[in-house]
## 1
Amino acid sequence: MDHQKLFDQLRERFGDDVRALVVETIDPWIEVSAERLEDVCRLLKNDAAWQFNLLNCITAVDYFEPDAKKAAKVDWKPHVQMLYHLSSTTLKHTVVIKVRLPRWKDDVAGQLPEVASVSGIWRTADWHEREVYDLMGVMFVGHPDLRRILCPEDWEGYPLRKDYVMPLEYHGIRNR
Amino acid sequence: MASHLGDPRVVEFDVRTDEMLINMGPQHPSTHGVLRLALRTDGEIVSEATPHIGYLHRCAEKIGENLSHRQYIPYTDRMDYLAAMNMNLGWALVVEKLLKHEVPERGRHLRVLMAELNRIASHLVAMGTYGLDLGSFTPFLYAFRERERILDLFEEVCGARLTYSYITPGGATGDLTEGWLEKCEAFLDQLAPVIEEYHTLLTSNAVFIRRTAGIGVLSAEMAIDYGTSGPVLRGSGVDYDLRRDGDPWYTGLYRDYKYEVIVQKDGHYPKDRDYPPVPAEAVLGDSWHRFYVRMLEVVQSVELVRQAMERYRAAKGDCGAPLKLTQRLPKGEAYLETEAPRGQMGFFLVADGNAIPWRVRVRSSSFCNLSITHEVCRGCLIADVPAVIGSLDIVMGEIDR
Amino acid sequence: MAPITVAHYLAVGAVMFVAGVLCMVTKRNALGVLMGVELVLNGANINFVAFGSKLLRAESLGLDGQFIALFVIVLAAGEAAVALAIALNFYNNHTTIDVDRADDLKG
Amino acid sequence: MMTLAGMDWHAIYFWLFALLTCGFALAVLFSANVVRMAFYLVLCLGASAGLFFLTGAEFVAAMQLMIYVGGTLVLLVFGVMLTAHSRFVSLRTPSGEWILALIAGSALLALLLSAALKVPDWVKANPDRAAISAADVEATTPIGMGFAGVRVDKLSQTDPQLLGGMSGYLLPFLIVSIHLLVVLIGAAYMARAKRRAAAVDEGAV
Amino acid sequence: MAELINLQILNRLLGWAGVDLPPSHLAGAVLAALVHGVILLGIVAVAAMFFIWAERKVAGRIQDRLGPTRVGGRFGWLQALADGIKLLSKEDVRPREADALLFRCAPYVSFAASFTAYLALPFSDGWVAQHINSAVFFILAVLGLEVFGVILAGYASGSKWSLFGAMRESAQVVSYEVPLGLCVVVPVFICGTMNLVTIGNMQTGWLTNWLVFHDPFTFAVFWVYFTCAIASVNRAPFDLAEAESELVAGFHTEYSGMRWCYFFMAEYGSMLLVSGLATILFFGGWHGPVPVFDMLGWSSMGGVLQYVAELAGAANFLIKAVVGVTVMIWVRWTLPRLRIDQVMTTCLKYCTPLAAVCFLGALGWQTGMFGLAAGPLWSPNQLMAVKQRGEYRESWVLKAEAAAAAEGSAAQAGRPAASGDRDEPDVSGETEPARSSATGAVGSPLSRKGGVG
């Protein structure tokens, strides 16, 4: 699949909101701004030339190093990266869409970063977004039913964040 | 009083009974582990089915950030514990994809052999438990009888019967033992005719057809929209199989193998002349078709295993040694989906240069397959709920991870 | 022990009948009233069968007693079906089967 | 009377079944729980079937068990289940009503009992009961014939005036059959899907 | 009312043992009642235990495994006993939500219904606890009461699954009683009696005399009966009330220990009962396929030999009934379960119309509508002098015949009351002779096949 062509088309349409294309990696990816993600996704799904009708997976990666000594050595600033693995069952090609989010909204700890929900585009995103919300703490704006899915409803914290500390006790059950 | 007449539920059903909210599971004979379904029912009719998952959540993704890639293998075993070989394979391939490490030819055929054999075992369980869900106990034991023999084969090769940890990044923990191929051959020879028995007991059984045909119909668009995969997707008539259409790192395994994707095309399944015909009541995408696809995939896998054995014999060299425990992963990320028995099992791996991954993400097939429940269980009878859930063939270990 | 006569059966029938009538009077639930009706019918049935028994009377009603009892049983079944249908219908519209609430036609 | 040979089994069974019948009839009356009422009614009617057996009306007793207890009451219990609001419905009756009802009821009972005991023919035991064997009261087939219009049980009747009135129960049987059919259709019609209700509602708007 | 307690067996036993007991003797009567009760309870209990073992064994064999092998020696034949002991030692749990009284009563109601029905089930010629002349309906009626136990259990358990089970059961059993009743009516009207002993005895002789081979319609109606019987005793594929994959365990979800055990005793008891009923109604009851004892003449000889013949008859009956139960077990382990609406459609759309058609067909066959039944087809029964079907009369018929014969006058000379090959019954019934001829007509349709030949 011609990722460059896709990138050009998106660039033409959305301008700088489509930030980058990287093809040298194992899986080529396109970075999109959080604001225009929904529009980009809608185009990717509905455009006859691309037909990304299958959303394989939504992943969030927390780029954060709690250890200050190690944190000094990394080449990135702390952020949460969203990855959308898309493929087409008809044209049999795949693409990865990345979105960069702050770890906390407005850098206020506890304020979940926000990104538009794509559950209106692919319904499979419903559960995947709930899972990301549950484990990584990303707020999906426009999600119909954003609840925790794997952890209990009253669980505190977002376990997959790098600075997450396991609570010692949950409802009287000791964890250690 | 008149307001009740405007209530849409009043006009739907014969006798308006009080709505009941019942919990099916997490301790229920037919929820395949610890799935909990909150059913809102009106008499026997289910007006809403909400799955609640997470009872088996073991933080597999978090664990992956604390172990080296080889240490993570046993955790993949416990995801889809009915198809642990396929889970191992998925993880091994994604690590190899990141490392750009190719296994030798012999190792490739060994992997196909194991994956397909495990697919047979997994589909046998799916078939047996589906019978159980519909109240027929006998096929379950028949299925386990055959599965036992596959487990014997696995045990001989890796010492374990459920959690194999056999296929590892780099190859496999060991080569096949002497005489293993003959035993496998004998098993396949024995399996082929008994599949006929299963068709008699279930596929073409009139009661079975009445219970499954036209129940839980999932249209092709909806199947894709919900990200379903595997037999659920193909049972809806979508011609998509990662062994053919997937990532080159995965399809490379099946290079030069001869097989047909099991999907209904022009009203026919490949080679379906040898098997019970599709009943007139069955609608594409219903529980019966999902079941039938699995049954045909067993036969397909038998053929693939035969081909793999032939090629394995012909291939020279070894089957690849496992990577070292401390093998550093290059900086970067890789995503790979494999066609596990239950559908597309995806592993995503972010590495920062250490042996221990920075982030592991598991995309589970059953997770997506289960998410259609509320869609297909709406308006069916209570008895149809196990019939639909069973046809999705979920494994909670994989959903909750 | 005195021999059993028709009057003994009649007494049993009377008790059932009275219990049924009181049931009809006191119960609020439509189905409770229905049960009262069943008791009344059955009390009557005992009388018919007793009068028709050859064992109890030399000059009995004969089989006619049993015929009438059978008719009563069958008609009671029909009556119960209709009453139940009414009760369910009433319940559908009023979500109760309290007979005192069935006063829609009251001016 | 309680000699070994003269043991009156009929009396023993009668008292047993009579007590059960009356006891459960009263239990139905005094129970406040509608499901228990249904349960007591089952036992009451079952015991009265025992009384029918004692009088020799075996077919009636079997029919009582089959149609009444097995059919009608199951239907009733079904109705109870469908209409039960909370799980165990209680039916409290105000005590004032109870007192009135009990006064009226005991008056009625006294009247009925005195009537039953007044008629000399009814309190007299059948003198030649011992001569009647179980086979003599066998009545199943005659009942069947009676419904078909032939009274084989009254063959010895010679009085031509009486003969005219006993040509069998064919006509009532047919009427009842048709009646039942109508009832069934009517009940099904009443309890059927309420789509029409919505249509009426829309029409009103 | 000493007749109420049937003393036949006991008296014969005692007479054989040399004890002479007057029938109305209190000790004798009580003893007889006890013996009957204990024998029947024993049969039900032993049958339940045997079938629990058989269920496991048959299921094991069907599923390519061995089933119980250890308890009590080679075949695990004490497995049911071990199960029973285990159940006895289990804690008797009652949910807090349950209605205590009804919850406790329900298993006994179920079991009592199943057990009471045995009162009217003959095991051999005259071996019946209670002669009831409408025994067929009595058994069906009492069996139908078993549903109350299930309904009460479901309702009183305070569990939603139980309630679902109870609702299903009540709907199912009430519906299936209709086709079941219709099926049973077919042999009843062929025999002209509801007395099971008489129906059984009417099938004396070679197996061609069994009612299932009487005509094509009885053959068909047997299968309808068997289907409905499986449904009415709640066995797979109609075991919706306890459907474990849907309702956890349905009505007995909340039961444990002995109370649970009673439900199972009731289930297995009912299975044997409906099979036994099928045996009597369709498969010759206690008569073997070859009338060995009739040929030897033992069955009417009296004394020990007749007793032996009757004992063999009882064994014969039990074997046939057990075969029926085994088929039920076989069906259970083969077929998936139907859905509730499908169970109801099976009843209303297939079983009831089929039973009705068979009923009408058998009626037509019996009245010679098809032109086949008038002359008896050849059967081995013609070789031997067995009592023919038409010779079994109810007592009132015999009495009426005797009366008619006694009053016999010149007017009747041309039309003998009891002759077998009469015309259609004359039911106008105005004059004495005409009415007595109607009496004879009751016997005549029965004797059409056997009586003439």
## 2
Amino acid sequence: MPIPPLLTYALRRLVQAVPVIVLIMVGTFLLLKLAPGDTVDALVGDMGGADAQFIERLRIEYGLDQPVWVQLWRYMSKLATFDFGWSFVYEQPVATVLMDRLGTTLLLMATSLSIAFTVGVALGAIAARRAYSLTDNVISTLGLVFYATPSFFLSLMMMLLFSVKLGWLPVGGIKTIAGFYTGWDHVWDVALHLIMPTAALSLIYLSFYLRLMRSSVLQVADLDFVRTARAKGAGETRLMFHHIMRNALLPVVTLFGLQFSTVLGGSVVVETIFTLPGLGQLAYQSVIQRDMNTLMGIIFLCSIIVVVVNFLTDLLYARLDSRIELS
Amino acid sequence: MSQDRQDTAPILEIRDLKIALPEGSDRPFALDGLSLRVNPGEIVCMVGESGSGKSLSAGAVMRLLPEPHVYVADGSIHFEGDDLLAKSEAEMRGIRGNRISMIFQEPMTALNPQKTVGWQIDEVLKLHMPAKRAERRKHALDMLARVQIPDPESAYNAYPHQISGGQRQRVMIAMALALSPRLMIADEPTTALDVTTQLQILKLIRELQREDGAGILFITHDFGVVAEIADHVVVLRHGEVVEQGPAAQVLNDPRHPYTQALIASVPDLAPPAPKPLSDSPVVLKGTGLKKTFAARGGLLTGKRKAVTAVKDLSFALRRGETLGVVGESGSGKTTVSRLVTRLLEADSGAVELDGADLLACTPAQMRAMRKNIQMVFQDPMASLNPRKRVVDLIAQGPIVHGANPAEARENARELLELVELSPAAANRFPHEFSGGQRQRIGIARALALEPKVIVADEPVSALDVSVQAQVLKLLADLRDRMNLSLLFVTHDLRVAAQLCDSVIVMQKGEIVESGTAAEVFTNPQHPYTQTLMSSIPGRDWTPPVRNTDAA
Amino acid sequence: QDVKTGGTAIVHMISEQRTLNPALRASTGVYNISGKIVEPLIDKSYDGYEPVLATEWSSSEDGLAITVKLREGVRWHDGEDFTCDDVSFTAMEMWKPLLNYSSALQANLESVDCPDPHTAVFNYSKPMPIDLFVAAMPDLGHPMPKHLYEGTDILKSEYNTAPVGTGPFKFVEYERGQYVMAVKNEDYWREGYPYLDRIVWRFIKDKSAAAAALEAGEVHESGFIGVSMADVERLSNDDRFDVGTTGYENNVAHSTVEFNHRNPIMADLKVRQAMYHGLDIDYAIDTIMRGFAKPGRGPVPSAGGENYTDDVKTYDYDPELAKSMLDEAGYPVKDDGFRFKLRHRPAPWGEYTQLWAEYFAQAMKEIDIDVEILTNDAPGFLNGVYRDHDFDTANGWHQFRSDPAVSTMVWLRSGQPNGTPWTNQFGWKSEEMDQMIDDAASELDPETRAEMYHQIQRKAMEELPVIFAIEHPFISVTSKKLMNHHNTPRWNSSSWYDLWLDQ
Amino acid sequence: MSIIDDTRLRPAEPSRAVVFWNRYRRNRAALLGLVLFAVVVLMALTAGLVDPGDPLRRAGAPLTAPFVDMATPLGTDQLGRDILSGLFYGARISLLVGVVATLVAIAIGVVIGALAGYFGGWVDDVLMRITEAFQTIPNFVLLLTLVAILGSKIEWITLAIGIVSWTAPARMVRAEFMSLRNREFVDAARNLGVSNTSLIFREILPNALPPIIVYASVIMALSILLESALAFLGLGDPNYASWGNMIGQGRAVLRTAWYCAAIPGIAIVLTVLSFSLLGEGLNDALNPRQKQ
Ligand SMILES: Nc1ncnc2c1ncn2[C@@H]1O[C@H](COP(=O)(O)OP(=O)(O)OP(=O)(O)O)[C@@H](O)[C@H]1O
Ligand SMILES: Nc1ncnc2c1ncn2[C@@H]1O[C@H](COP(=O)(O)OP(=O)(O)OP(=O)(O)O)[C@@H](O)[C@H]1O
Ligand SMILES: [Mg+2]
Ligand SMILES: [Mg+2]
């Protein structure tokens, strides 16, 4: 039976991703080993101190007394069987720790990126359509201001206004604790909690899409085939939707794929402020705690997500760009 | 005849049209006082060098000028008696594509890459024809058949990148003619095409127009094309009409000195008498050259098909000889020129320069050898580093090869004079020159190393005819004066005929015919060569005796 | 006012507690949660030590055996009886080998005998002062159920994050990064208690967010200075909240300045004294601690009870004096405007520690000492100071754990191995001091013991191995809806059986 | 002289700088960006001249509001440090971080991108895998890790920001090189016998610079934002008054003394804005594509 081209393509992408992921994992491992101190230091710091034998015993327990390359080899050979190891900080298997957080992060990233993408693209198209007009200036300036505002600043201001002053939105967390909502109430509850973090994240990324889309539309609008369509008697709206948009979206889609991992990094601060139990915050904590296995797990997961997202954006790209055929 | 023209009601009448350019442009008006008329069933050719305002006049008729920077300052445009300039944008939309249609130069970019051919033809129908989908589809398929596209059904569903350049231009024409417009404007519709395709398209336009009786405003800069197709000719220069009249008269008996000069620049097809070269030594010899572009595909495209650009090619170039390499697009001409200079590594074969095999040299040896074999490139803008001053561009070669920089620069100034440029040019940047001047700089750069062989890849095809003639003349002069050998790659048979001693004709990477220019041009043997020769536009027209000094 | 029962109390926690087993991890963060679920043998009240799972305790004459009577009729949350086996198991398998701090305390513990199910006898190889034993029990004396741990890998037991205890509340769930929840234990041994239905601990890392949550009514209590000092001060003027330090008498900390005595400049007592004179402690208390603190008087804080004395040498703020002392010590101002340069490592915990470091740098500049602050995260800091000794000065806060023997003395006693955090890694060694500390630790008579600690305190203030600059209890912001709050000296760690919600 | 003569030179054009400036100033927003940028530079240069010296010194009573005490016109922070002075010195740090981190990022990016784009083949493969690896790790997490390793000295922070920012310029340079290496002028130079190194750095690089310069403004803006985010998490260098540090500490008193965080916050917004506007202006001036 012939393998469908999409599958072969997916397989090829997977094979290509393997060396990159190995590179990332080894690199991160060694990098983190360069950092002063280890998990035990962090744990002891957290406990408020411990005596020397205790510390010694923990190190042996965690295998931290071994040479670095032994530790690396142990880790990598476990990883090859998709065993992420044990988090000494959370006293749980890393896989459990990660799965607990993955949902929140994916939800946050997916909603904020899709909002950023759609709104950014729409505003960018409008701004380009009325290039150099008042509308354009207002949209572009707002975009730049949001872009220039540090995310924590924006988050704090929002929290101050909407939670404390107006009391409309919950301060943080992912759901009302001890609310015990189920069904749609639960969905609504989570949605309420996600409004501000999503807004904070998406406003920043929105401006990227906005600016790119604007210049992309301006660029495409100058192309010959748009002139052809005009010469056919097509009106501006038709030009925009049938001729310009789809071509102008191409670079924006590429950015979408590239930006995914940045958003995860960007969510560190937002998750911290809004107390969202997500991977961004977990990553930050893991660095500080030298929680090697957890951090490595996050990075691994993140690489997989990025590979998948890039694969999907490539598919989307191919869908949008008829010149590309997957084979 | 001129009496007849005035009597019929014109489809298009332009009077005293003035188009203003934005401040800071090289002239205030792109068009200054253009008047012309297009009658039904008539092809009016607008000729003129680059920048003379041809495209903008077409834009003005379509009301598609890039306003507000460029706008109609004065004059009138009447289409079938209606004042187009007074129409609203909505009214204009009703006219565009319906009663006036347009074909553009680049079939590559003029079609939306993301929509199927069928969709794009359908769009024009949808906009102007109140008809059901199936009906429109049928009409579109009819149109595709009319423009002689082999398999209209599959072309209908194809994306532009899936059909050839010639077919794309046919699609454009089908689109333009779909609603039987009264006026069709064609802005250099064949310039980007191969000679053979060009001729087919020209014929097609002509036939279709005969059937429909539309008027055509045909823009071109090629007098060959004019001779092929025009009923009436308008010659533009710097936005002013210098001469207009019936085709026969303008072509064969130009009145204005400018027109005369232009026509005189058109190379005629009679090759020069063969030079006695058989006893000069062979300076450059290629044997069994082969190049396959094995396809390392992109991530998304996967592996591409391997393309054999050149297979088993051999030639010999003697001292003082000019060897022309001709053939249509994609036949491997450029590949040959790059193999010979080792800008591309050949898969197999040898290139001997004065007996030494270039392809066997180490990189260091090769760098030293390059002194002897220099190139002149096609695009005079792209081949000069825009960030370098002319003097540095010319002196670069000698300096790399160990010359004293100060002396090399001094030499460079002298070379500028040799290529007939003022030494004042030395300190300027490439963008401050016209195309022809840049090509002169390119020639000076090649000469600076005092090479034995110069390889020129389409050195004049990016230039206007008038300038083309001058650059060719310069090249010929220098060749004769310095006893250079020239490997001259071109797709323009007229140019080849004028300059080359011998010619090799390539098709799909292979030599199909070779011999002296005189033999090949007067008595082509291979069927492919014969088709090529018969496709030269205006081949039956011999430019009138040169009565002006073009240089 | 009538007690109302029911309701959910929501408590703010700054950082997540990954393990909730107080017999494996001694830290206030753990007790803050586990204290309601797992009970210690003895707790501390304002009236002294209070029996919880232990009912009485006594020591043999020689101090080698301590007998503890256990409460009868107490059941673990899973229904099993609480007996001496549990105490013995926990003491030998957890307190002695696994529990930080306790390992040193119980180093001489030989065995725990169970003559009957409700009597435990702790056998020591060297005398153990009963006072010390009792003082340690509230923190280091939590029995865990033997039947759930025995025969398993204790460190990886699932019950470490889902504790089973005897306390007034039963563990329900732990959502990582979000909250821990516990519900009323209907089978609690104190009849009629607890009042609350449920307690939820919410993790909010960001202090501003925590303050916002308090104000929005989403959280009822935030302890251990869980909001910024500015917000503490602001909320203290808000009549919806009680703000104060009550309930932390057992959890007092010092903001310190530590010296690396390996550096000859720091080894010079005159320099250290001069630096102390250069610090405007009152200003720092006002600006950084917003007045919720007092000047430090050596290793024992005023909360140290009879072991504390204020009859010690003090160092007033006097920059001019400081400068002249430095001149005398042979460190005049050089061409670059400074006497010498110090590399200072601040501990990365908390806002006021950071500010204290910056104030320290600022103040030192006033007496022409250049201070470069080296910021690191916790492991980096601990390594830099306690293992690599790569610093000239450092600062942080250190908590006092009710008895000097189990807490502050380690900062003065020499001889701990490299890399042990919060020990004397400062290169300061005094045979005399070491002796005094050892003597005090095994002294059985309370009065003599107190006097010995006064001596130590005086000596520490004279020789300044470490500057115990500011003594500050922790601060809680508590919603006035909570009743009976902060009614014991280690309230945040206690069981809250009598806490109720007025709503 | 005949009618068609292509040997006569056009009158000399104004110099590049003039052309550049003429194009640049057409964009009014870009001019605003330039003015803002100039203000920031001026602040950085005059820090210490205009204003009371050390921004870390106690200058007045803690938490003095702006415009209350003329000795500290913009007020003081928790430790009584002068906010105005911090603003001026902070400009210095922000610019320093922005410029140096950008230089680092661009330098790495140019080398990697140039080699990958110029040589193609396996060199490209290897370098691009490395680039992908760097791109896959969330850059802020990598930054945190680097800072954890190196410590929070301003030099290290700057270096770390540079290290996490190089991938985008590398990709961009690579793309530029891939298109430029096939341009005829490169062939022309190669045909003159120019070596690979000269081809890369003398022939191609100068032509690849305009988009890189434009992108530099983006990195500069991002660097400043990254530095402030680090400071917000308490990982800034406390030995210098930086805007990020000021916000990081100011937010503790956000509710009572908003100005401590708001003033440096606005400074960051305006500075980043100025870089963005500057970038757009440069883009219009260096890569004129569409005519306005
Ligand atoms: N949008 C525009 N803005 C400013 N100047 C323009 C614009 N379009 C064209 N021009 C100028 O107007 C003049 C005429 O341009 P036009 O495109 O009509 O020339 P053309 O005869 O079609 O030349 P070519 O043969 O190269 O196509 C040129 O000098 C050109 O620089
Ligand atoms: N770098 C390349 N990679 C893959 N295929 C190539 C490459 N360069 C040229 N080809 C293919 O080799 C064939 C010959 O190309 P070449 O450029 O030599 O033709 P040409 O005769 O110069 O055409 P033109 O007249 O259009 O310049 C074409 O089919 C082309 O697609
Ligand atoms: Mg044109
Ligand atoms: Mg070619």
